[in-house]
Structure formats: structure tokens, C-alpha cells
Amino acid sequence: MRISWINKFSLIDFPKHVSCIIFTPWCNFRCSYCHNPDFVLPELLKQKKDSIIPEKWFFEFLEKRKGLLDWVSICWWEPTLQKDLVKFCEKVKGMGFLVKLDTNWTNPEILKELIDQKLVDYIAMDLKHSTAKVKDVIAVDFDSKTLKNSIELVLNSWLDYEFRTTVVKGLHNEEDIENISKSIKGAKNYYIQNYRSWNTLVKDFSWRSFTTSELKKFRDISNEYVENVEIRN
Question: What interhelical angle do 108-116 and 85-94 show, nearest 10?
């Protein structure tokens, strides 16, 4: 599997647990506020020297971290685009580590296979927007049935999970948060993440973050539909 970057030590993904985070290249979305265009766009990745870390090196690293790490977190930009993701997760699980997958909703077949074979222990699914407006964010065509199927797969699964939305002033409003929350009604966890300006895919992207009070209002709206709603500011 192609690996573009590794964070060897993290306490952020799982409080009280130690994890490493691996990032895979390429994405099938083109979100204007994406912070990592160098690894989203194939043409930019080709320009970066030493941009792919050998899988062999990663497993040698992981072997040395037995007893020190609990989780392996597989993150953006979209891991399910990697053809050998299932085999990769098999190897990680076979070494005794727990697996977290950060993903969008575009590959329910892969998600189902990972869930059915118990090759993933936690899924963090990114919901960019409500079904009616998601194309405005991802800037590509999509199938609403695929979105619905992926959400239902996670909601009905045996594993731990979270849904999350990065909210951007100018793209999201209270009605949007309510519509997203309705689509995951009954979910255990929903995280509302505030946008922070950085190296974005669209260079002249100038929309802003929300205030703390605005985010709390979003949380109150979502609490009507989801068990636990938290803000990541």
C-alpha cells in the first residue's frame, strides 16, 4: 500500500492510548479548503521527492513498536482508494494492533469487507455536507445511494465510530447542520470541526472559521438527533 507520511507517535486519536498515524496519497474529492493538496493531486505528488514510504519499512517500524503502540490509524487522503487496503489491515491486525480508519463514504463495498472481516476497530467518517449540498464541497459527481449505504453500514456495525464535519463559514449554516444530523439520526458520536485557514487546495480560498458561540449553536441543534456531539475548535 502507498504511504505518503507517518506520524510515529500520537496521543490525540485515542485518549489514554498510543497510536501511530499513516497517511495515504490521493483523494477522489476536490474540496476547496483541503489542507494537503500536495498529496491529493497526483500531478503534485509526482513532483515531490521521496513522497512514498515503502510498506516494508512501515512494518519493520511496527514490529519494533509492539507493546508500545496500541493503534494504527489509517488516514487521508482517501485510504479506500488503495487497492490493497484490506490486505494491509490484515497484516496490521495480525501483529496485534487495533485499526482506525478515517474515510469518506464513497466505497461502501470496501467498508463492508473490512467490517465483516473484523479488520477495523474504529471508523471516522467524514460528512462534508448535507446530501443536497455535498457536491458544492467535493466538486465531483456522487451517488446519494452510496452516501446513504455507507452511513447505514457504520450505524449498524458492531464497531466504535464517529461521524464528523469540518464546518466553514460561507459553506455551512444551522439548517445544513440539522440536515446532516438528521441523516445520521441515532448515531453515537458526531464531531463538529472548525475550519482553520492553511495551505488550501484553492489558493484564493478566503472563507472563515466560526466563533465558539456559533459552534455551540450547531452542537445544540445536532444534539436533537445524535447521542454525543462534540466541538473540535
Answer: 20
* Residue 99, beta-bridge partner list: 72
Tens digit of each residue's pLDDT (9 = 90 or more) over 93-134: 999 999 999 999 999 999 999 999 999 999 999 999 999 999
- Do 82 and 88 form a contact (C-beta atoms < 8 A)? yes
Q: CA 185 to CA 171: how far, in whole Å?
A: 22
Distance CA 137, CA 85 (A): 26
Average pLDDT over residues 11-26: 86
CB 108 within 8 A of CB 149: yes
Nearest to 36 by CA among 102, 83, 98: 102
Contact (Cβ atoms closer than 8 angstroms) between residue 51 and residue 57: no
Residue 169 near residue 210, CB atoms below 8 Å: yes
Q: What is the pLDDT of residue 180?
A: 98
Amino acid identity for residue 192 in this structure: I
Alpha carbon distance 201, 177 (integer Å): 24
Pull the grid cell for residue 136. 458544492
pLDDT surpasses 50 at 47: no
Report which DSSP code applies to 106: S
Nearest Cα to 64, choosing from 93, 86, 95? 95
Cα–Cα dist 21/75, whole Å: 7
> Which residue is associated with the grid cell 463559514?
169
- Tell me the C-alpha distance between 58 and 202, whole Å: 32
Which residue, among 71, 43, 55, 80, has the nearest Cα to 4 in the 3D structure? 55
| Torsion (CA) 138, 100, 157, 141 in degrees, nearest 10 | 10
